[in-house]
Amino acid sequence: MTLAGTVTMVTGGTGQVGRVVVRRFAEQGGRVIVPYRNPAKWEELRAWMGALAAQVDGLPADLADQTAVERAVAQALARHGQIDHLLCLAGGFASGRFLDVGAEQWDQMLALNLLPTVLVLRAVLPHFVERGRGRAVTIGARQALEPSAGAAFYAASKAAVIVLTQSIARELRGTGVTVNCVVPSTIDTETNRQMMPKADPTKWVKPEDVAALLLFLCSPEAEAINGAVIPIYGKL
Ligand SMILES: NC(=O)c1ccc[n+]([C@@H]2O[C@H](COP(=O)([O-])OP(=O)(O)OC[C@H]3O[C@@H](n4cnc5c(N)ncnc54)[C@H](OP(=O)(O)O)[C@@H]3O)[C@@H](O)[C@H]2O)c1
Question: Which ligand 1 atom sits nearest the alpha carbon of residue 38?
Fold first, then answer.
């Protein structure tokens, strides 16, 4: 599959999964836009991309800030003329037993996982609908479908991303625009290896597997897939 001539926005593109996705889309010949909030992480990504860095454009934005998101999307459209694919990967994890987690931590979790997804979709979807085409993909987590103890606020924030995706997909029926949600189990990242030193990482999902699924969802073959919630669990 070639992505020559396409523009993909990847939120969380400086993250452990995101950077592999950014590289994969760039390897296929596409241009990739990465909104980032940490300039050092953006420079790290550029260095890690090597020659492919020329295909990646960074835009500073805290994605939990509506004004910043709208500015970044306007800048992306001004510079690149179009966005074809939007991959909403910004987010993160925290655990805590329900009775130990207060309102402030709930706010932080929703600001981490739900708000950036909502704000970026709101900013980009009008462009997709106007063009009559566009692929958006969000990211949930297995915990949202099969929650364990100590995961209430993380699971709830990711469940919100899943149902948000399903509802928007229904609203978009017939527009030529699709929005789907990928739902990974534990991914083989440096953070997870440090947090779970006794686990067997060969059973985990590889970031490359997530990238391959996202690539498929942006391919012509996936045109008919809308509102899907797609588990990607590795060998777990
Ligand atoms: N790793 C797993 O096992 C796993 C499993 C299921 C689902 N997921 C989901 O997959 C996604 C990627 O996970 P990961 O392991 O790659 O996490 P990660 O390494 O922590 O990357 C998260 C990325 O999101 C960015 N981000 C978060 N909030 C942002 C904001 N307000 N504005 C701008 N950027 C923001 C981070 O930027 P900074 O670098 O500036 O913080 C970082 O680039 C997350 O949504 C996560 O919940 C992960």
Answer: 40
For residue 3, the tally of other CB atoms under 10 A from its CB is 22
Q: In the structure, what pLDDT confidence band is assigned to residue 1 with cuts at 50, 70 and 90?
A: confident
Q: Does 207 contact ligand 1 (Cβ within 6 A)?
A: no
Ligand 1 atom 18 nearest Cα: 15
Tokens describing residue 148? 């364990």
- Tell me what the pLDDT averaged over the chain comes to: 98
- The number of the ligand 1 atom at minimal distance from the alpha carbon of 65 is 31
Q: How many residues does the chain have?
A: 236
Note the pLDDT of residue 36. Answer: 98
Predicted TM-score of the model (pTM): 0.98
The beta-carbon contacts of 79-82 under 8 Å, at least 24 apart in sequence, are 80/7, 80/31, 80/33, 81/7, 82/7, 82/127, 82/131
Q: Where are the domains of the chain?
A: 7-232
Contacts of 87 (CB under 8 A, 6+ apart): 8, 9, 10, 11, 21, 136, 137, 214
Q: Find the distance separating the first CA and the last CA of the chain, reported in whole Å.
A: 29
Confidence of residue 55 (pLDDT cuts 50, 70, 90): very high
Please indicate whether residue 233 is annotated as part of the active site: no
| Ligand 1 centroid to residue 112 C-alpha, Å | 8
| Fold for the domain defined by 7-232 | Rossmann fold (3.40.50)
Which of 38, 46, 59, 89 maximizes ligand 1 atoms within 8 Å of its Cβ, making it the mutation to test the pocket?
89
